[in-house]
Design brief:
Structural class: alpha+beta
Distance between the termini: 36 Å
Number of helices: 3
Shape: globular
Number of strands: 10
Strand order of the largest sheet: 3-4-5-9-8-7-6
Radius of gyration: 16 Å
Order of helices and strands: HEEEEEHEEEEHE
Length: 189
């Protein structure tokens, strides 16, 4: 894996205009990143498996069935000695493989897209969750969308997933939120 990296970051513009999104902005390795999240994604957990990796997950409250949708952002600093083309290829492969490892009946569609003016690879996937001590508690059909790209020397993976029962509603709004992601160097003082 690239420097111990692991994976895995909603709502219509009309809702944004109505104030239904909350801006999140933080620093990572000399860059500032931002994401406009639906207000319903108010629970947050973060991890840094290595100094050059940041993972943050945003979720809604747990539903009666124990499930909840997820928006996850993973940031990985590109190693200085790595070819940029090799870095993005490896990052894409590792990010989607991290999701696939926990699924059976796996299907994925890959396409090219953009977030702002940054090229990304978009993965739309489906599969059945495999119960794990640190993950799903039961087998359940799920869908997700992942966007992977590189900007300013930082690789990023934005991922959303939910159970099939809810995905038709939650995934479009989560993907819209993920498309507000920006990363930049801070303005010089």
């Amino acid at each position: 894996m690239i420097a111990s990296s692991r994976l895995l970051l909603t709502l219509a513009l009309a809702l944004f205009a109505a104030g239904a999104f909350a801006q999140t902005e933080e620093g990572f390795r000399g860059r500032v990143w931002s994401l406009e999240l639906p207000e319903s994604y108010n629970e947050r957990k973060s991890a840094s498996p290595a100094s050059d990796v940041l993972m943050i997950g945003f979720t809604q409250a747990v539903r009666d069935d124990g499930s909840r949708p997820l928006i996850q952002i993973t940031l990985v600093e590109m190693p200085l000695n790595m070819n940029p083309a090799t870095f993005i290829k490896t990052l894409r492969e590792q990010m989607i493989a991290g999701v696939q490892r926990r699924r059976e009946e796996w299907q994925v569609k890959e396409s090219e897209s953009t977030i702002g003016d940054v090229a990304v690879t978009r993965y739309e996937w489906s599969g059945v969750t495999i119960p794990a001590a640190d993950g799903a508690s039961r087998r359940a059909p799920a869908h997700g969308v992942m966007l992977v790209g590189v900007h300013e020397g930082i690789g990023f993976s934005l991922h959303t997933q939910d159970l099939d029962t809810f995905a038709e509603k939650t995934l479009p709004e989560a993907e819209q939120a993920m498309r507000t992601f920006r990363i930049r160097r801070p303005a010089a003082k």
